[in-house]
Amino acid sequence: MIINGQKLELKELKFMDYIKEKKLKIEFIALELNGKIIPKDEFEALILKENDKAEIVTFVGGG
C-alpha cells in the first residue's frame, strides 16, 4: 500500500492504528482512498489493503 507517497510493505493495516501511530487528530484530517474521499464515520472500520493508495491531508489553523 502507499500512504502519502510512502510505500508500506503490509498486507493490511487498520486505518485508525495508523492515525494513532502518527499522532494525528481525526477531526483535522481528510482521507482520499483510491481516488475517493472517505467519510470520517467510516474511519473506525476501515482496513487498508495491499494495493490501496491513500492520501491523508491534515488541516492546520493559523493566521
From TrEMBL:
Pfam families per UniProt: ThiS
Name by which UniProt lists this protein: Sulfur carrier protein ThiS
Classification via InterPro entries: Beta-grasp_dom_sf, Mopterin_synth/thiamin_S_b, Thi_S, ThiS/MoaD-like
Superkingdom of source: Bacteria
Xref: Gene3D superfamilies: 3.10.20.30
CDD domains: Ubl_ThiS
UniProt-listed SUPFAM superfamilies: MoaD/ThiS
